[in-house]
Automatic annotation (TrEMBL):
This is Peptidyl serine alpha-galactosyltransferase. It is a single-pass membrane protein. Pfam families: HPAT. Residues 674-686 have a biased composition (Pro residues). One of its GO terms (cellular component) is membrane. Residues 659-733 are annotated as: Disordered. Residues 701-719 have a biased composition (Basic and acidic residues). Residues 177-251, 359-615 form the Hydroxyproline O-arabinosyltransferase-like domain. Residues 1-21 form the signal peptide. GO terms for molecular function: glycosyltransferase activity. The keyword Signal applies. It comes from the Eukaryota.
Amino acid sequence: MEMSMIFVVMAAMLVMGSGRARKSGHNAGGLTAPFRIHTLFSVECQNHFDWKTVGLMHSYSKALQPGPITRLLFCTDEEKRTYKGMDLAPTLEVPSLRKHPNTGDQYPTINKPAAILHWLKHSKDAENVDWVVILDVDMLIRSPIIPWKLGAEKGRPVAAYCGKHPELCDNVGQLLALHIDDLRALAPIWLSKTQEARQDRAHWAANYTGYIYGKGQITEMYGYSFAAAEVGLHHKMNNNLMVYPGYSLERTLIQFLCTVACLLVLEIGRLVEEMESERNKSRTLFLGIECVNTLNEGLLLQHAAYGCPRRKGSKYLSSVRSRTFTKITQSKQLTKQSRRIMEVNVQKPDVKEVYPNIHTVFSAECSPYFDWQTVGLVHSFYQSGQPGTITRLLCCTEEDLKQYKGHDLAPTHYVPSMSRHPITGDWYPAINKPAAVVHWINHVKTDAEYIVILDADMIMRGPITPWEFNVSKGRPVSAPYDNLIGCENEIAKTHTRYPQACSKVGGVIIMQIRELKRFALLWLHKTEQVRADMAHWSKNMTGDNYEAGWNSQMYGYSFAAAELNFRHVISNKILIYPGHVPVPGVKYRVFHYSLEFQVGNWSFNKANWTNSDMVNKCWAKFPEPPDPSTLDRSNEDSVQRDLLSIECVNSLNQALRSHHERKKCPDPSAFSPPIQPDHPILPPPNRDSASEEITASRKLGKIDKVDALRHNSELKNESQELSPPEVTKQTQK
């Protein structure tokens, strides 16, 4: 009975202390300017934030952290009506930005910079403080965090180191101690940069952010680092400010997005000491025990304050209540040795080389045929580690756009369709490729120095970079297209002044943006000229099996490049056609599945899937290729050829599955049977004719606006620069 009363009194003191914090500041310690400290943390109106709040507030009291503490609480109106935890901490209520009011993006973490900005604008405490300590709710304070004792200065915040490559900005986060003037300059840009990073889906991949799930969850942390760089803050970064329970003290303690996940270790310290004689391992386990015990101690006090009856008969609870535990976990003060360690900053390596920006583009149409190709290419782009961003140049008529459902499949730029030539009436959809590039260059501002041009029917296997393939002025890079025999006969002499400069290339193009700007329009004009030159459409002149001028766009490219005297770097290491035997040791970067290929009795021909809606039918996929283990291993060339063919279609199916998961299709374990292929609109091309491409038909139309779209987890648009006619409201929902 006496012990129960003691805990009730202790809990009452804790609650009373929190009440004082609202008015004059708990643990103020008589600090006056310029030594006033205020601690902040942000939470939501949810149970899992409440028990963390109890733990943090308890540790704040035990550690004797100077100055007041404020919980920045953001709740929706509906949550607030049923919320019961208003008395858990000194609180400032903040409007919730969990769902962005403009983009509809669901990203609760953006509330952290938004809440801090709200505190600066609306709290009187922000007018009476010199230093601010910013924590996360899933932290426990073990000793006072006093900024100037940790080395913080105005313009030089102190933070926990949080990364590996701080070449361009400070890799910091989670625990921050900075001057109030620095926070005032930083906060609005922190919020703005978080929004920018959140919308930059092209850089969510793990190879860019370090976040293994590639879903943009740490964009708030990047928003802070980018904002700090923007306002000129240079951090004193340190590995010794914070520890994750369970991490060995011999190794780096900080990694991206490792929250304070306390280990549930229920052994008493004496037993741990017997089990672990090695000092660092023993201390690691002790910290795990201390973490959970501190949380439980805070919960015991909170329950006692609520009048809950004391639980009996638990040795664990007795140990938590013991004087020994209280002594072990009392506030730790900085020693001379620890101060010396704290002053050791993480040194930034010298920046040896900054690579130029790259932008990848490809053209497509408003049709199911191009939609599944787009899904495959875009998925492979993010998996490949390709630097920069990707944009789909979508060529559609106004009528097509009214019914089109695939606006959010890729970052998109809308282009007027030239499938039917506006002057000649010629029906030639392939002309949209150079026309789309011309339109994009003239309507979009880009900071890219190099452009990579692909086709929709490609799968990326690795990065395509100008520095690896030696792009330079007047020396674009491309893949060989040997069937362009017109470079060696009178067609070249007819359409270029420099036929000797005609290169038989295509498929993948890497070019400097400056050269593409003066080249693209000529590419379009030469395509029109070759398309009009029907006298030279014969197979013996062009290599076109159908003698229909289908490769006019490719000749347009080669003749335009010759006209500008470009000398291509022709690489046979970039692209391979599934079904072709690979060169041993070459790591091809792109599959181009423009032709039919087969493995045993199984085959794949993209033309057979012209009208199949693989994207909007949940769990649709292509017939699975044979298992690699079933291949005949008697011929190594055949094995390697077949393995690449299998990889190509498996990549397409993986992309479709990922798309359907993002689309939130029901019951992912219950797949629909594969959609049966359509009858091809055109006869399949000759397998030996590697240079021919067959494109689906398009309708006549005109569009005069540009749109930049990015997909999110529910396949809804988040942002638009301009919108296509009559689809704005639909695509922004």
